[in-house]
């Protein structure tokens, strides 16, 4: 089945710097790649997603890139702010009789003011 | 607009007791429904998903089960809880023809 690896597990950056989180997936049939942000004690919230027919997508300070050949995708946050501090999850989704999404283990991002 | 509810919000149960967690979705029909478990400080583990009433796919063999008695209701159950069942249980839904999943507020379960 699908397996998603996410790195790093913890990331600490200075306010204003960029943060990059990388994920790899194993099943070439995966065609949907969402990213979620989870603040302490709360539910994960979708922040951006990308489909397999697109190589890059940007939404203000957040961008995602996808390399289907290498089976990896990345999240880029520019001009980080303290409120960006949270756990970020990548995921890979595919149809297997229903649509299934497998999540990475998460990256805890600390943005230091 | 769509809303997803979970209850209870918090639950403390003794080892060996039964469990029933409920998830309901409003404002949509025929959603795909999902149960995830998140251990403390860990990632999201997919437990079950359902594409329709009575249809359940199990991802991880364990002492949990799921049922979907109605279109917008998804229930997670156990006959006998283990200590390792402690965690944050999240229900999620997606439209039948779209991939994006939206999570409920979660149930925090502590098994003692």
Q: What's the topology here?
A:
The complex is a heterodimer of chains A (113) and B (112).
Chain A: E1 4-7, E2 10-14, E3 19-25, E4 32-38, E5 45-51, E6 56-59, E7 62-67, E8 72-77, E9 86-95, E10 99-103, E11 107-112
Chain B: E1 3-7, E2 10-13, E3 19-26, E4 32-38, E5 45-52, E6 55-58, E7 64-70, E8 73-78, E9 87-94, E10 102-103, E11 107-111
Parallel strand pairs in B: 2-11
Antiparallel strand pairs in B: 1-3, 3-8, 4-5, 4-9, 5-6, 7-8, 9-10, 9-11
Q: Tell me the total number of β-strands of chain A.
A: 11
What is Rg of chain B?
A: 13 Å
What is the string of helix and strand elements of chain B? Answer: EEEEEEEEEEE
- Percent of residues in β-strands of chain B: over 45%
Give average pLDDT of chain B, whole number: 93
Distance between the termini of chain B: 38 Å
Low-pLDDT parts of chain B are none
Q: Report the mean per-residue pLDDT of chain A as an integer.
A: 95
What share of residues are in beta strands of chain A? over 45%
The interface involving the most residues is between: A-B, 22 and 24 residues
Low-confidence stretches of chain A: none
Number of H/I helices of chain A: 0
- Count every helix of chain B, treating DSSP H or I runs of 4 or more residues as helices: 0
Which structural class fits the helix and strand makeup of chain A? mainly beta
Task: Tell how many strands the DSSP assignment of chain B holds.
Answer: 11
Q: Structural class given helices, strands, pairing of chain B?
A: mainly beta
Largest sheet of chain B: 7 strands, mixed
- Binned, the helix content of chain A reads under 10%
For the record, give the distance between the C-alpha atoms at the N and C termini of chain A, rounded to a whole number.
41 Å
Main beta-sheet annotation of chain A? 6 strands, mixed
Overall, the morphology of chain A is: globular
Write a structural description:
- The complex is a heterodimer of chains A (113) and B (112).
- By secondary structure, chain A is mainly beta.
- Chain A has no helices and 11 strands.
- Chain A has strands at residues 4-7, 10-14, 19-25, 32-38, 45-51, 56-59, 62-67, 72-77, 86-95, 99-103, 107-112.
- In chain A, strands 2, 4, 5, 9, 10 and 11 form a 6-stranded mixed beta sheet that branches. A 5-stranded antiparallel beta sheet of chain A has the order 1-3-8-7-6, with no helix packed on it.
- In chain B, β7 (64-70) and β8 form a beta hairpin.
- The interface between A and B is medium-sized, with 22 and 24 residues.
